[in-house]
Amino acid sequence: MDFLELAKNRYSERRFEQTPVEQEKLDRILEAGRISPTARNYQPQRFYIIRSEDAKAKVREATRFHYNAPLSILVCYDLNEVWKKPEDRNFAEYNSGEQDASISATHMMFAAWEIGVHSVWVRDFDSKRMAEVFGLPENIIPAVLLPMGYPQKDSEPNKWHFSKKPIEDFVKEL
Ligand SMILES: Cc1cc2nc3c(=O)[nH]c(=O)nc-3n(C[C@H](O)[C@H](O)[C@H](O)COP(=O)(O)O)c2cc1C
Question: Which of 123, 145, 162 best tests ligand 1's pocket when mutated (most atoms within 8 Å of CB)?
Fold first, then answer.
């Protein structure tokens, strides 16, 4: 599929069938996250699979935006492996973790869509709470939750999907 066509068609899925996502499809999705670009190629991204009943119950404790997905990937970064830039005085706390994890999540979101697995990007959770419910080590920071699965038959994009600003609002030639 043409990339721009795929990017335009993709929408946030919030209505999932309970049909499990096949392991080979999940492996393909994770592979797209594995090979994503990262700052200095440090590769701090970490993927936690949520599909057991126990894990699903825990994610429900951490966010209401779980959408009862049969599968979710919690995309995190390892704070001990991110690129830091201490000499940048304007961004004293800068590290590449959120960006690295977000690029991985984006790769996985599109790789999933290409094979018919829909997802939604979720950031409305407290990262400390999310880490706590899963007992993650202190250096592992949750960045993105990707609930995913097959869409319900009557699923369709919501109105936000069609409400995109015109290109002039984004681009300025310097
Ligand atoms: C950084 C980020 C955070 C988001 N957090 C949530 C969320 O917590 N819950 C949710 O339902 N959707 C969330 N979304 C999905 C957006 O609402 C959605 O992408 C946007 O409305 C455009 O719709 P579309 O993805 O269908 O084109 C998030 C998206 C991004 C990029």
Answer: 123
